[in-house]
Amino acid sequence: MLLDVTLDGVLLVDKAEGMTSHDVVALVRRSLRIKKVGHCGTLDPIATGLLLITIGRGTKVQDLLMSEDKEYAGTLTLGITTSTQDRQGAIIDQRPVPPYDENQIRAAFQKFRGDFYQLPPMVSAKKHGGVPLYKLARQGKVVEREPRLVHVYRYTVDRIAPPEIDFSVICSKGFYVRTYVHDIGEALGCGAHLKSLRRTKSGRFNVANASTVDEIKNKPRDEIARHILSLPEVSRMRGA
Questions:
Q1: Are 52 and 40 in contact (CB under 8 A)?
Q2: Which CATH code for domain 4-67+205-238?
Q3: Which regions of the chain carry the CATH code 3.30.2350.10?
Q4: pLDDT in the model for residue 237
Q5: Structure confidence by residue, pLDDT tens digits, 181-229
Q6: Pairing assessment for the beta strands 164-171 and 47-55 based on DSSP bridges
Q7: Which terminus of the chain has a lower count of CB atoms within 10 Å, N or C?
């Protein structure tokens, strides 16, 4: 029998759409029958992909793992702005989408490369006075937020099929892809929102090596536990 004392480290999970990050934590907690479980870097319910789940003593390196750069692949929709900056929000503005050429679209993306400031969205987990912004947003409140310095290391524009554009982006911690999309839409002059998003990498960790939600639901505890990266493995992968 697998003892809880061996359950220390990081489990890579490919989050399914419709789940919150806390749903994944609860699932891992139930499947492994261990209480000390956390996660690194919240993924919104519409997003899929890599979620680092920290287990046991792995929770002590949570802040280190959260500081890593992230890579995402997404699709934006031009012409519609929403209250949440993604497709789950209420439509607050609709504008016609001009016949942009590829150079105009790439120029809008190019404005958001390197260092720049982002205004955290009201519907986010960032806290104001100890209260997550999304809870204040549910009460109809809008509070002043401090812009934060973020960094885009690299991006690609992968498909242009208006009103949709597929893209990928490698960015710093604390980066809101929803806000990135919103700002690109404003730079183009027609507005935009995030249609879909997938996190493909976090630091040196890749979603290709992650366990799926179905695997965690259906596989025996011992088999799930074999996929937990030990703390020495995590340290080696981070190059520490």
A1: yes
A2: 3.30.2350.10
A3: 4-67+205-238, 70-201
A4: 85
A5: 999 999 999 999 999 999 999 999 999 999 999 999 999 999 999 999 9
A6: unpaired
A7: N
Task: Say whether domain 70-201 belongs to CATH 3.30.2350.10.
Answer: yes
Task: Give 48's strand partners.
Answer: 198
pLDDT digits (tens, 9 = 90+) for 46-85: 999 999 999 999 999 999 999 999 999 999 999 999 999 9
Looking at the annotation, which residues are catalytic?
A: 44
Would the pLDDT of 1 be above 60? no
Write down the pTM of the prediction.
Answer: 0.89
CA-derived radius of gyration, the chain: 19
Question: Could you tell me if 128 and 119 are in contact, meaning their C-beta atoms sit under 8 angstroms apart?
Answer: no
What is d(CA 132, CA 136) in angstroms, rounded to the nearest whole number?
7
Where do the H-state alpha helices sit in 82-220? 102-110, 133-138, 177-188, 213-218
Q: Is the link from the previous residue into 121 a cis peptide, with omega within 30 of 0?
A: no
Q: pLDDT category, 146, cuts 50, 70, 90?
A: confident
- Return the ∠ at Cα 212 (arms to 4 and 176), rounded to 5°: 100
Burial 129-154 (b: 16+ CB within 10 A, else e): eeeebeebbeeeeeeeeeeeebebee
Residues 186, 178 contacting (CB under 8 angstroms): no
